[in-house]
Amino acid sequence: MSDVSLSEQEQIRRQSLEELRKLGIDPYPAAEYKTNAFAQDILDNFIPEKNNYPDVCLAGRIMGRRIMGNASFAELMDSSGRIQIYVRRDEICPGEDKTMYNTVFKRLLDIGDIIGVKGFVFRTKMGETTIHVKEFTILSKSVRPLPVVKEKDGTYFDAVRDPEMRYRQRYIDLIVNPHVRDVFRKRSLIIQSMREFFNSKGYLEVETPILQPIPGGAAARPFITHHNTLDIPLYLRIADELYLKRLIVGGFEGVYEFAKDFRNEGMDRTHNPEFTVMEIYIAYKDYQWMMEFTEEIIKKVALDLHGKTEILYEGKTINLNPPYKRITMLDAIKEYTGLDISTMNENELRSACDRLGIPHTPSMGKGKLIDNIFGEKCQDHFIQPTFITDYPVETSPLTKMHRSKEGLTERFELMINGKELANAYSELNDPIDQMDRFREQLKLSEKGDDEAMAIDHDFVRALEYGMPPASGMGIGIDRLTMLMTDQPSIQDVLLFPQMKPENPKQGAGSRKEEFLECGIPEEWIDPLKNMGFNTCSKLKEAKAGKLFNDMCSYNKKNKLGLTNPNPEDVKKWIG
RNA sequence: CGGCCCGUAGCUCAGCUGGCAGAGCACGUGACUCUUAAUCAUGGGGUCGAGGGUUCGAUUCCCUCCGGGCCGACCA
User: Fold this and answer.
1) How far is Cα A93 from Cα A87, in angstroms, rounded to an integer?
2) Which nucleotide is nearest to A450 (CA to C1')?
3) Which DSSP symbol is given to A156?
4) Is residue A553 scored above 70 in pLDDT?
5) What is the pLDDT of residues A365-404, one digit of tens each?
6) Protein CA at A165 to nucleotide C1' at B24, angstroms
């Protein structure tokens, strides 16, 4: 019984599956398979003179085969890497019955199957460390052919590069592009390195709500959802800042969270709707202290990952060794535009934007205009790590006013490779000022800024009880990972980046019942769909004679063994 | 949201100004007991992203749609 919607290769593999079962071999055994070695360990540590791997057992996926008759080589890939195995007929099958080799190994196994092998390690004439297999076990049969990627001297042939396949079917990407697994191991290491550092300082890792009644802590459009029992809207968090600061009010010295945040905005090379941010808040510190702390974090991550602070990103050498350059936002603008905007009012800023050719809208306040000038004219210049400090109050509603500079706040962003990597402040802990700032946001919102923050009354209430002076900082983990692993796109550092839903290969088509109502035998429904008649109405457009002929030849060609319809019935279906 | 490019066998990709849909790998069959992008022989495999239009004839030209990429806009 063959299914014509499957490709030839898939059908053959399903047949192999049946043959294995007939031979009494379970293609998906339940039992634990105890291994005692990994491929990479063997490759690294095997010494032929010592014969130090006389009895190994390992499991993995078959990635390539070279069958020469009564002996074969194959590539086995486990979580650590690839190793060659050597299988000889008369050792797999010591007796008269050569089925295990001739039939099972040579014919019924395929690239992609997962097997376990037992044997000893040796080195071939060609000098390759290889497992001489004495016994193998099928652990999982693959019924869908894997893309075959071959490699010689570091050059890959037919590598899967199609981004759509790589991101939609990440499992394939991980199987056939070994360096991809490395990227995600490094991502894990980065997080581990930071967590270690924070824990060593005694800071507490916490978890705060993802579903929030008021999405606060950042300027962004949220995702909205609905809670049925409470019958209220809830928002997926855009930041965890306001909750973490409540915990500082609560008396913790330092709290941090690796948080998934969600922003309902555009997607591109550096933006995914859900992304990971590490936010940390520490009592009795200010943003000056936080700059040094941030330098330490970045340096430690670089050292833990690469053993050095010089990294290469898109061909550019970036030195992450502190101290990093510091420049105020106003000085940066002065340096790259020649304009001193420190005394300009909103109208003067608008004409400055016009002169610089920077677009702006009436809904933009003073802060956004300054931010725009910086973003357009300055940001790209900061390739080496640079702290941009002292942001205008209008774009920093949660930041303490600058201790000495009017209209500015104690805030910095860390720029690396022209991109914002971290954002930090001396946290605003004056509840009256905070309430005023929220009200300013409300005005912006009325002006048409749909990203202005909503007032979080409970957060203000918390501040009213008194929050110690504190400094907080957020690092984009995805962007940090891109930087540290030299990946060009955020999709390359997210295991499952957001994609539009995939188109079903052939539209849903009419339901089975509709075909049955037309009088079409059940066994013919799928074949008809495969012939292109997805819907009953489409079928009715066909000519009866041609349809009858097509069905008979389709039946014959695909060896379906169905009863051919008779021409009279076909006429009736079409009506 | 706009501009440019892409979608052909399981995978990587050819396919010219419109004329029977191709290659390599993979797969099937046969040979081969240290190969390594194994080799040799031989065979099968396609809704050319979907729908419509022009045409005697469309993978090719035109339109619409779907999916993807790059650049820009919006946005951190």
Assistant:
1) 10
2) B75
3) E
4) no
5) 788 889 888 988 899 899 999 999 999 998 899 999 999 9
6) 21
* Residues with Cβ within 8 Å of residue A59, at least 6 apart in sequence: A33, A35, A78, A114, A115, A116, A117, A139
Find the residue closest to B26 using CA and C1' atoms.
Answer: A148
Q: How many helices (DSSP H) and strands (DSSP E) are in chain A?
A: 20, 20
Q: Between the CA of A147 and the C1' of B59, what is the distance in angstroms?
A: 24
Cα(A66)–Cα(A89) distance, integer angstroms: 14
ipTM of this complex > 0.85?
A: yes
Nucleotide nearest to A158 in CA–C1' terms: B12
Q: Which of the 452-491 residues on chain A come under 7 Å of nucleic strand B at their beta carbon?
A: 476, 488-489, 491
Lookup: tokens for A373: 């000038």
Chain B bases closer than 7 angstroms to a protein Cβ: 1, 9-13, 24-29, 31-39, 44-45, 47, 49-51, 66-76
- A111: nt with nearest C1' to CA: B26
The model's pTM is 0.87
Rounded Cα distance, A241 and A256, in Å: 10
Specify whether the CB–CB gap between A180 and A174 falls below 8 A.
yes
- C-beta of residue A374 within 8 angstroms of C-beta of residue A333: yes
- Show contacts of A357-365: CB within 8 Å, 24+ apart: A362/A447, A362/A448, A363/A444, A363/A447, A363/A448, A363/A449, A364/A449, A365/A394, A365/A444, A365/A447, A365/A449
Determine the residue type at A346. E
A506 beta carbon < 7 A from strand B? yes
Helix residue ranges, H only, A448-535? 457-464, 477-485, 512-517, 525-530
| Residue A275: strand pairing partners | A261
Q: Give dist(CA A340, CA A557) in Å, integer.
A: 80
